[in-house]
Amino acid sequence: MQLRRMLGIQPGLTAIIGGGGKTTLLYALARELSQTARVIVCTTTHILPPKHLPCLTEGTETEVRAALEKTNCVCVGTRTQDGKFTAPGISFEALLPMADYIFAEADGSKRLPLKAHAAHEPVIPPEANQTILVLGASGFGKPISAAAHRPALYAEKLGVCEDTIVTPGLAARLLQMEALHTRVLVNQAETEHEMALARKLAEYLHCPVAAGELLKEKIICLC
Questions:
Q1: Exposure class string for 43-75: b at 16+ Cβ within 10 A, else e
Q2: Kind of pairing, strands 209-213 and 218-221?
Q3: CB of 75 within 8 A of CB of 54?
Q4: What is the spatial distance between Cα 176 and Cα 174, in angstroms, rounded to a whole number?
Q5: What is the pLDDT of residue 167?
Q6: Rounded distance, CA 21 to CA 223, Å?
Q7: Are 190 and 140 in contact (CB under 8 A)?
Q8: Is there a cis peptide before residue 151, judged by omega within 30 degrees of 0?
Q9: Over 60: is that where the pLDDT of 96 sits?
Q10: Quick one: pLDDT at residue 1?
Q11: CA distance 95 to 114
């Protein structure tokens, strides 16, 4: 699939925001890039600790470097009282020289495909050189109330009611209004109809767009 090529991933820090597959993208990128490079995965909000990666929760810079000498991919974060990880205790400025790529999940969406962002969201590190917004195609054709995290805010920003059906044009309006991303990935596009809706969304946007199914490792560039 070569996600790196499809999403234009460059060395440095990439932030991942939105809904509909952020964590899946986080680990897919880490898995691909760590085959030939050193990778750190982390969050600026909250994620469950990955069971398939070494996790450093209170590591010093020396310990992170040592871990990356043993394996090409580690998760760095701070453990919370509920067992989740939040942002690393080490600054991103300090982490950047340690790895070729850092991927940070910088948003939360309560597992919903769409999201409207409050004033304090997303939490994108200033060091990020790219922000990928993930959008779930499963949200198209559903009312805002069922498809979006923060549905009242989603509707308010667009000047519609919460039972309004989400179309590619409506979703594109919100993305352009919030202007938080450099690139969009439409995930969960499992059928020809959903791919057609993803293509319609891409027509409205002025940034690179890719679409497909992360879980099946099928992603194509739309523009």
A1: bbbebeebeebebbeebeeeebeebbeeebbbb
A2: antiparallel
A3: yes
A4: 5
A5: 98
A6: 20
A7: no
A8: no
A9: yes
A10: 54
A11: 30
